[in-house]
Amino acid sequence: MKRRLKTGMAPYLFLLPCAILILVVLIYPVFSGLVNSFYNENLIRPIAKEFVGFENYGKLLKDSMFLDALGRSVVWTIVILIFEMILGLLFAVMLNKDIYCKKLFRCLVLIPWVIPNAIAGIIWKWFLNESFGMMNYLLKQIGLINHNLAWLSDEKLAAASVVMVIIWKSIPFVAITLLAGIQAIPSDLYEAAKVDGAKESQCFRFITIPMLQNIMLITAILTSIWNFNQLEIIQVVTKGGPGEATLSLPVYIYRLFMQTFQTSYASAAAVMMMIVLIIPCIIYVRKLLKE
Q1: Would the pLDDT of 268 be above 60?
Q2: DSSP label at residue 223
Q3: Is 77 buried (19+), middle (13-18) or exposed (0-12) by CB count in 10 A?
Q4: Do residues 175 and 91 touch, judged by C-beta distance below 8 A?
Q5: E strands within the chain?
Q6: Alpha-carbon distances of 234 from 100, 227, 246, 269, 287, rounded to whole Å
Q7: Dist CA 18 CA 220 (whole Å)
Q8: Closest to 215 (Cα-Cα) out of 169, 182, 190
Q9: Which helix (H) or strand (E) holds 1?
Q10: pLDDT 10s digits, 100-117
Q11: What is the pLDDT at residue 1?
Q12: Residue 106 CA, distance from chain mean position
């Protein structure tokens, strides 16, 4: 009996260090932030912390800057999702073909994904510089523009630039994931379709797309969560400016916590963001459980 008990407990003992690490690194900060959101703590005002209940949440629902940041993050996430899925699928199909140096191209596609977000933000900030950035130089060389564009100073261009950088960063993951899905499709299906006279476009429409639906859904949910939480690239490239043109919800929370030191108000905003993200997380988990 003792031997069976020891044998049965062994796997859990091996998992215990990892469980403790997750508890300390993930669960405790979430619980601490949730509790702090019900107080009025502000590091600039050295007053005793008081329990205020849902007062911070009530203020958030009336805070136009918070609502604008939330709406901007949702819209950006949808736009990025559309472009990254289309371009990612296009790259996946191209990389699946028998082309010269196929393995090399697969490695090159991964470069944007493996570059840290902060480093990618610095690279693109220099690339989009109005005075000496390569973007204006290249566009001038091919005749698309006659003068330098203020990519990071103009409100509309700044928003488009941030979205473009995040799409550039997200495409490799989508492409490689969908490529793995394409390679898992049985070749017999394509051979049978060609015997019946199906064209390549018809094979793509009636075989590739339906067989990729599940992995496309999971990839879309994962990347949407990551892109909604994107902070480093926006903070490095524009810092939420000019004005509030690129102020996403994570950047807004960062400002509350690190610049104005409204820790309780920032915690309430973070809890609201977590509630928004719970919806795709539930869909993702349910999808995995079905699989």
Answers
A1: yes
A2: H
A3: buried
A4: yes
A5: none
A6: 37, 11, 7, 18, 31
A7: 28
A8: 182
A9: none
A10: 777 787 788 888 998 999
A11: 55
A12: 21
Q: Between the CA of residue 38 and those of 33, 34, 45, 61, 285, what are the distances in Å? A: 9, 7, 17, 15, 29
Q: What spatial distance separates the first Cα and last Cα of the chain, rounded to whole Å?
A: 36
Give me the phi and psi of 51, to 5 degrees please.
Answer: -80, 125
Q: Can you tell me the distance from the alpha carbon of 225 to that of 74, in angstroms, rounded to the nearest whole number?
A: 10
Residues 125-177: pLDDT tens digits? 999 998 888 999 999 999 888 889 999 999 999 999 999 999 999 999 999 99
Q: What is the pLDDT of residues 51-61, one digit of tens each?
A: 888 999 999 99
Residue 7: both structure tokens together: 């044998």
At residue 50, the pLDDT reads 86
| Domains annotated on the chain, with CATH | 58-290 (1.10.3720.10)
Least Cα distance to 232 among 157, 169, 172 occurs for 169
| Chain centroid to CA 41 | 30
d(CA 125, CA 236): 8
Length of the chain in terms of residues written: 291
**Chain-wide mean pLDDT for the chain?**
88
Distance of CA 63 to the CA centre of its chain: 25
Q: Cis omega before residue 250 (within 30°)?
A: no
CA 232 centroid distance within chain: 11
SS3 letters across 154-180? CHHHHHHHHHHHHHHHHHHHHHHHHHH
Measured distance CA(216)–CA(210) in Å, rounded: 10
| Burial group, residue 112, by CB count within 10 angstroms (0-12, 13-18, 19+) | middle
> Which residues partner with 207 through β-bridges?
none
